């Protein structure tokens, strides 16, 4: 099967390497023509393994493929939607929420996935699998070849299907909405939420507010705490983006909670405040 991947970031390269390992041919659409050139010449290196059953280009969706994985950041989805989704199976693997309705406007059966694996792009064609996690995917139907291809992947990159992907996305969102902004505020690894009393208290406030907005039970804190413990040595993706002066996914994470609260006639003051605090921090550095 020939699978196209939109995005040459850490997750795009990680997915590409494991799908090639599973016997699939890959085409990657990158933002940079230079990265596409390097990928065509070198393939992808993950740890000490090289995967070269691939081609790459920098013009989105120009290549004919059997299925597409959208691996760009949330804020780059506008370009994807403006280009128009191809008429083949499509899987979205973004952090945050808010893109599902637009995807369904353009595609009859878009798939969505929650991905908790850690990945780091060390060079244009080099990726490291930094932390084991899981892939939970879903949509209106799994009766398409991309779902079959993903569900056939072996450990440590296997995927599982859920009939309620929105709940899975909400559970991932609430973790991100608590952990990511606070690690930016303190410029620290995730474990700051366990060792710093003020950070811990702020985490509790953000969690309770988000749980109310997302209609999740307060018992979901057990999962949030478990993720923090498991990833204590990690730097959140938002912190990495902040430190590398890249655009952060603030709008699709905490911003989504603020907008959802407004839609329901509720308030999400803690999330509004931390967004403003991060934007000031970004401006003043």
TrEMBL record:
<feature type="domain" description="Ketopantoate reductase C-terminal">
    <location>
        <begin position="168"/>
        <end position="279"/>
    </location>
</feature>
<dbReference type="Pfam" id="PF08546">
    <property type="entry name" value="ApbA_C"/>
</dbReference>
<dbReference type="GO" id="GO:0015940">
    <property type="term" value="P:pantothenate biosynthetic process"/>
</dbReference>
<dbReference type="InterPro" id="IPR036291">
    <property type="entry name" value="NAD(P)-bd_dom_sf"/>
</dbReference>
<dbReference type="InterPro" id="IPR050838">
    <property type="entry name" value="Ketopantoate_reductase"/>
</dbReference>
<keyword id="KW-0566">Pantothenate biosynthesis</keyword>
<keyword id="KW-0521">NADP</keyword>
<protein>
    <recommendedName>
        <fullName>2-dehydropantoate 2-reductase</fullName>
        <ecNumber>1.1.1.169</ecNumber>
    </recommendedName>
</protein>
<comment type="function">
    <text>Catalyzes the NADPH-dependent reduction of ketopantoate into pantoic acid.</text>
</comment>
<dbReference type="GO" id="GO:0005737">
    <property type="term" value="C:cytoplasm"/>
</dbReference>
<dbReference type="InterPro" id="IPR003710">
    <property type="entry name" value="ApbA"/>
</dbReference>
<dbReference type="GO" id="GO:0008677">
    <property type="term" value="F:2-dehydropantoate 2-reductase activity"/>
</dbReference>
<dbReference type="Pfam" id="PF02558">
    <property type="entry name" value="ApbA"/>
</dbReference>
<dbReference type="InterPro" id="IPR013328">
    <property type="entry name" value="6PGD_dom2"/>
</dbReference>
<dbReference type="InterPro" id="IPR013752">
    <property type="entry name" value="KPA_reductase"/>
</dbReference>
<keyword id="KW-0560">Oxidoreductase</keyword>
<dbReference type="GO" id="GO:0050661">
    <property type="term" value="F:NADP binding"/>
</dbReference>
<comment type="similarity">
    <text>Belongs to the ketopantoate reductase family.</text>
</comment>
<dbReference type="InterPro" id="IPR008927">
    <property type="entry name" value="6-PGluconate_DH-like_C_sf"/>
</dbReference>
<comment type="pathway">
    <text>Cofactor biosynthesis; (R)-pantothenate biosynthesis; (R)-pantoate from 3-methyl-2-oxobutanoate: step 2/2.</text>
</comment>
<dbReference type="InterPro" id="IPR013332">
    <property type="entry name" value="KPR_N"/>
</dbReference>
<feature type="domain" description="Ketopantoate reductase N-terminal">
    <location>
        <begin position="3"/>
        <end position="138"/>
    </location>
</feature>
